Amino acid sequence: MQSALNPNGVTITGTGFYVPTSLLTNLDLAASLDTSDEWISQRTGIRQRYIAETSTETSDLAVMAATDALHRAQLSPEDVDLIVVATSTPDYAFPSTAMLVKQKLGSRAPAFDLSAACSGFVYALSISSDLIKSGAYHNVLVIGADKFSKIMDWQDRNTAVLFGDGAGAVVLQSRPGASSSFSLLGSEERGADTLISPVTGPITMHGREVFKFGVRILESMLTKVMGELELSLEDIALIIPHQANVRIIEHAADKMNIPMDKFFMNIETYGNTSAASIPIALAEAVEQQRIQAGDIVVLAGFGAGLAWGVQVIQLG
Ligand code: COA
Fold first, then answer.
1. Residues lining ligand 1, CB < 6 A?
2. Which of 135, 144, 146, 243 has a beta carbon 3.0–4.6 Å from 274's, enabling a disulfide?
3. Which domains, and CATH codes, for the chain?
4. Residue 100 CA to ligand 1 centre (angstroms)
5. CA–CA distance from 177 to each of 133, 181, 197, 294, 314 (Å)?
6. Mean pLDDT by 10 residues, the chain (316 residues)
7. What is the pTM of this model?
């Protein structure tokens, strides 16, 4: 970390998540697409995902996750001094989804969206941590929310089987004496067209290219961050990777000789929820008591751009 115990410590003091109630299983998809439960689960690890109603917007998902995180942090919306929403499926071009979340929560905080696709939550967390360290903000609500169902081509089996809707949120607070947070963000020189969606969709993707990028970048960012911070595997309670495909994580884990149980996976249940995938996984890991206060977690995002980001942070 920037230093082990830092006067500008930043911790996560609350986590929350929300997924819509409408379940879409692989078998449901196979009824209308040339695919099968076996193909999807073997190639991706996904068995089901949740899909929002047409009338439910990304901001609605975000508000539910944020309310959960605030409750767990024992804060009210008035205590929040900044709201950042990572999304690539905003309700509108403007106002930002974050402004809608702010209004629905009943907050007067400044609020803005951040677009970095599946790396969005790590980008948002990194910027928010630095803003806290600067002393400008103290209680930041960082949300990852996406409703990919509205930009899907439901006839395209290459993409329709992969994504789900949802939102996850954390409350990030300054906590002198806690470990400092540390992040590395980056992107590839090329690859912007590898995974792409016009504003109203649909998504198109070169699956194999994205797969190879995922394996290579996950290994590289974990190696870099552990090297820079001189972190051993024992120092890390859990690695929470973006939930894109279980085989991407297995390949990277194998190359690094890291046991799979060091990685938290829930792709089986939710599919790839893009910017929401890491905060949903983080909140579930807390709920399942896989991690607790004081633990150091490593969050690793990658996706369209091609962008990537890794964040090391302590739970408060
Ligand atoms: N159901 C059944 N068959 C399918 C299918 C589906 N949903 N999608 C593709 N296929 C077929 C292909 O047409 C191909 O058939 P062929 O051998 O007759 O030509 C075969 O399955 C293999 O296709 P391929 O694309 O080589 O499979 P793959 O092992 O690379 O898996 C992905 C495809 C999409 C699962 C995989 O490439 C992947 O996960 N990529 C990363 C995607 C991702 O994570 N995107 C988001 C990043 S944030």
1. 35, 39-40, 43-44, 118, 157-158, 161-162, 195, 205, 207-208, 210-211, 244-245, 272, 303
2. 146
3. 1-316 (3.40.47.10)
4. 36
5. 12, 12, 43, 11, 11
6. 58 97 97 96 98 97 98 97 98 97 97 98 97 94 98 96 98 85 94 94 95 97 95 96 98 96 98 98 97 95 97 93
7. 0.96
